[in-house]
């Protein structure tokens, strides 16, 4: 099986065999890239981050515990890098944060609603970038969870291990993230 | 639009695959009777479908190469080890060759002392073994690292390894005289001896 082969290759990498890492990269590259893209919203930057994640994984391979899932360990490196990058970028304006002195009002109500969608079918590419745009509006902590949950369909427990937060928190964030996106995507 | 938070909570639990059968029944029966919740549930499922179906985002085709090019150089030792792993036959041959040649050369180098069969009335002068007049050797005579001078009689072969048969020899040799004085000649001789021993071939 491919999975077993990857486990073997990872063992070789741990022993110092650099060439064996090539298979590991090509096996996980799509997932790692997609997770980064979901969190950062820019292909160029996402590719940069994903490469960085693999390089760090290679350098720190000795700290990977073979009894645990490699993907969990790898995704943790990638999400941590992406979270760091998000922090360094200009501060997030949380759209659902309430504005002082305006009870019950948030930035949504201040943005003019000119998002009228054409009646014709939108191409899937356009839909995709629209969805990504909406995801980017979510606070970072929801974005990382949505990336992990809906790209590799990871279990709640795995997500909690990757992000090092309790399972309960993962659930709440998934629910809120899904609810927020429902409101934004209902007319797509 | 939607009924209460509890039902919505159940919808999320259902979508997470994190719901008990009992609660699922509760959700189902509510959905049958409440159109607003049906709509809400449909929208949630659609949202999930939209963000899940969207995974054909791919990195550039040479992503792996780019990563590999940026890795720190690996230690030499491991690249040699990998070479051995990839070429097991050549490795075995190389190891065999190294062991063989080293053992042969040690044998050759250790063998610099004069050696000759004892108890045959032979006389030794410096590094020359002399078969004195009147002495008859019934067997083969093998002398290593020395010259040989035959004044008596040898009924078998005379074998000289790394030495010379002196011209002054006036004696009689019934068999052959073999001179071996190079590593490979010596090796060939050893192998032939071995083969004779094993297969018991006539000379």
TrEMBL record, chain B:
UniProt keyword Disulfide bond present: no
Residue intervals of the Putative zinc-finger domain: 3-38
Entries under InterPro entries matching the protein: Anti_sigma_zinc_sf (IPR041916), Znf_put (IPR027383)
Transmembrane segments: 86-108
Glycosyltransferase listed as a keyword: no
Keywords: Membrane, Transmembrane, Transmembrane helix
Pfam annotation, one family: zf-HC2
Source organism, top-level taxon: Bacteria
Family: Belongs to the zinc-associated anti-sigma factor (ZAS) superfamily. Anti-sigma-W factor family.
Name of the protein: Anti-sigma-W factor RsiW
Species of origin: Gracilibacillus dipsosauri
């Amino acid at each position: 099986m491919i999975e077993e082969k990857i486990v073997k290759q990872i063992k070789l990498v741990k022993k110092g065999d650099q060439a064996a890492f090539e298979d590991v990269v090509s096996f996980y590259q799509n997932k790692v890239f997609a997770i980064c893209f979901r969190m950062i919203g820019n292909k160029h930057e996402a590719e940069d981050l994903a490469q960085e994640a693999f390089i760090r994984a290679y350098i720190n391979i000795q700290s990977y515990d073979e009894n645990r899932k490699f993907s969990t360990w790898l995704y943790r490196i990638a999400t941590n890098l992406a979270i760091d990058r998000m922090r360094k970028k200009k501060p997030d304006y949380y759209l659902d944060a309430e504005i002082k002195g305006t009870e019950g009002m948030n930035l949504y109500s201040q943005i003019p609603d000119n998002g009228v969608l054409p009646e014709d079918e939108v191409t899937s590419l356009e839909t995709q970038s629209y969805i990504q745009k909406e995801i980017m509006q979510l606070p970072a902590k929801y974005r990382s969870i949505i990336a992990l949950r809906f790209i590799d369909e990871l279990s709640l427990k795995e997500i909690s291990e990757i992000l090092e937060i309790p399972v309960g928190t993962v659930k709440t964030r998934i629910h809120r993230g899904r609810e927020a996106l429902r409101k934004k995507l209902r007319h797509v | 639009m939607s009924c209460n938070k509890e039902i919505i909570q159940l919808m999320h639990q259902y979508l997470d695959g994190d719901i008990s059968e009992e609660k699922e029944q509760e959700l189902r029966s509510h959905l049958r009777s409440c159109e607003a919740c049906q709509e809400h549930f449909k929208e949630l499922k659609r949202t999930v479908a939209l963000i899940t179906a969207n995974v054909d985002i791919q990195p550039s085709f040479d992503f792996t190469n780019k990563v590999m090019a940026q890795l720190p150089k690996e230690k030499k030792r491991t690249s040699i080890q990998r070479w051995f792993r990839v070429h097991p036959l050549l490795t075995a041959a190389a190891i065999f060759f190294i062991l063989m040649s080293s053992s042969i050369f040690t044998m050759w180098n250790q063998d610099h002392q004069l050696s000759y069969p004892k108890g045959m009335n032979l006389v030794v002068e410096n590094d020359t073994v002399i078969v004195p007049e009147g002495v008859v050797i019934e067997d083969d005579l093998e002398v290593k690292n020395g010259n040989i001078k035959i004044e008596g009689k040898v009924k078998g072969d005379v074998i000289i390894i790394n030495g010379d048969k002196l011209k002054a020899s006036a004696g009689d040799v019934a068999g052959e005289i073999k001179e071996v004085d190079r590593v490979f000649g010596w090796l060939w001789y050893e192998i032939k001896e071995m083969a004779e021993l094993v297969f018991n071939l006539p000379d």
